[in-house]
Amino acid sequence: MPTPALRSVQMLALAFMSMIVVLGLVVYLSVPDADLALPSTYVIGGQVVAGVVIALILSAIGFRVAPVTPGTDPEKAKGEALQKHQMSMILRLVLSEVVALVSLALAFVFTEGQVMTYVIGGAISLALMAFFAYPSAGNIRRVEASLDSAGAQSRLAEAFGVL
């Protein structure tokens, strides 16, 4: 059963994710003569490549956190684990957001395909956030493994109610 700690980080992740959707509405309402034409294949290709690069970066560094020191009091270790998880999650959310933010800027630079430029970039960012940043059981366990790598027990999954 989800704990208040899990609900809190889920709400934080969902706030970041919903911002992507809100910015999409802003683009649609702000761009004069907004059309739904696709941008050039170079733009789409660049967005996809950027998404893949960010996914590789997130896989490589996104779940690395400093391990809990062995011998740390269990309650202190759990509090430290929650804090490190949240910092790690915010890093993953921000990195995932890069494609959408660059696409937002490009939507105001291009003369055609503005809305779809942002929609494609936003969709890539949302997929990255859902897979790498949202506090799913798998993501929580990946951070917990990093926290426990020195031999201490962080009990992060237990703190989030993930068994």
Folded structure, characterized:
With 163 residues, the protein is an all-alpha fold. The protein has a domain at 4-60 and 87-143. Helices cover 74% and strands 0% of the residues. The mean pLDDT is 94. The chain is elongated and about 60 Å long. The longest helix is centred in the middle third of the chain and has 36 residues, at 74-109. The protein is built from 6 helices and no strands. The protein starts with a helix and ends with a helix. Helix 3 (74-109) crosses helix 5 (137-147). The chain crosses the membrane at residues 12-31, 43-68, 89-109, 115-134. Keywords: Membrane, Transmembrane, Transmembrane helix.
Strands, helices and their partners?
Blueprint: H1 4-30, H2 41-61, H3 74-109, H4 114-133, H5 137-147, H6 156-160
Helix pairs in contact: 1-3, 1-4, 2-3, 2-4, 3-4, 3-5
Please report the total strand number as a whole number: 0
Unreliable spans: none
Helix and strand composition category: mainly alpha
Distance between the termini: 9 Å
Q: What percentage of amino acids are in beta strands?
A: under 5%
Q: What share of the residues lie within helices?
A: over 70%
Succession of helices and strands: HHHHHH
- Molecular shape: elongated
> How is the biggest beta sheet arranged?
none
Count every helix, treating DSSP H or I runs of 4 or more residues as helices. 6
Rounded Rg: 19 Å
* Overall average pLDDT: 94
Transmembrane segments: 12-31, 43-68, 89-109, 115-134
Keywords: Membrane, Transmembrane, Transmembrane helix
